[in-house]
Design a protein that fits this description.
Elements (H helix, E strand, L loop, with lengths): L9 H22 L3 H15 L8 E5 L7 E4 L4 E5 L7 H13 L8 H7 L5 H16 L4 H5 L24
Parallel strand pairs: 1-3
Antiparallel strand pairs: 2-3
Helix pairs in contact: 2-3, 3-5
């Protein structure tokens, strides 16, 4: 829905709406990494945070995962991320990618698996973020409201995570 002044002609409204849609589509393309970008991101994260730098055969967005944030099939080394992660902060997407990459080394979620993820400095923050999203969705709120205020500059970029927790703060 586009609200315009009543004095605007129909031709100007159509032109304005077309320009606005173009800007919004361009912003979305910049904000959401493509499958190729996800693969590059996963490769960088693997090298930085995981021993032996395990490499997936593919990393892609999928729209059929509405209960999980991501999944990994170790036998063919494929990783899939839920479309629900689109628009979330980069450190959250990075955490989900690392989680799935770790499954290339350890299939379960035991102590060995947790030890692989422990060095990631924003681990607890990302887990808390996703827990908050799950809680919010379970109580009837929409995804759009959760990602509208996401800082565009932080979405989709591969930057070194920084732990911003105050000293001594526990999650």
């Amino acid at each position: 829905m586009v609200l315009v002044p009543a004095r605007m002609s129909a031709a100007h409204v159509a032109q304005y709406a077309e320009e606005l849609v173009g800007r919004l589509e361009a912003r979305e393309r910049r904000a959401v990494p493509s499958d190729d970008e996800l693969m590059r991101r996963a490769t960088g994260l693997s090298r930085r945070w995981l021993p032996g730098a395990p490499q997936p055969s593919s990393v892609r967005w999928v729209t059929n995962q509405n209960q999980r944030w991501g999944s990994c099939t170790p036998i063919d080394r494929t990783i899939r991320l839920s479309h629900r992660l689109r628009g979330m902060p980069a450190f959250v997407v990075d955490y989900v990618l690392l989680h799935e990459l770790a499954h290339l080394l350890v299939p379960g979620h035991g102590a060995d698996f947790e030890a692989l993820l422990a060095p990631y400095p924003r681990l607890r923050e990302a887990q808390a973020f996703l827990d908050g999203v799950d809680f919010t969705l379970a109580h009837g709120h929409e995804m759009g409201a959760l990602t509208e205020s996401t800082d565009e500059a932080s979405v989709g970029e591969l930057t070194p995570p920084v732990d911003v927790s105050p000293p001594g703060m526990l999650f």
